[in-house]
User: What shape does this take?
Amino acid sequence: MIQAPHVNLNGSSKSDLLEQYQKAYLAASKSVDMLRLCAPHGRDYQGLPVEAYETARTQHKMRMESAHKIANDILDIVEQITVQGR
Assistant: This one.
């Protein structure tokens, strides 16, 4: 489980934390959308060895998985903060 900040009197307010993490989540989600547009297409690898396109597809898949993980982690933090008091 992702460790979220603990809302308390001496720390940042719940609303500030939510605003910050919600903005971060929107940015991470946008990065997923933008990365999707960058998916490799075979026509861009013509003239290269056939494995170049396969390598690019594998690497793109890994980037997409990483971007999804970041977005999901941030969403988890938002959800944890949301259920806290104050």
The chain has a mean pLDDT of 96. Residues 52 and 76 are 36 Å apart (CA to CA). The chain has two helices and no strands.
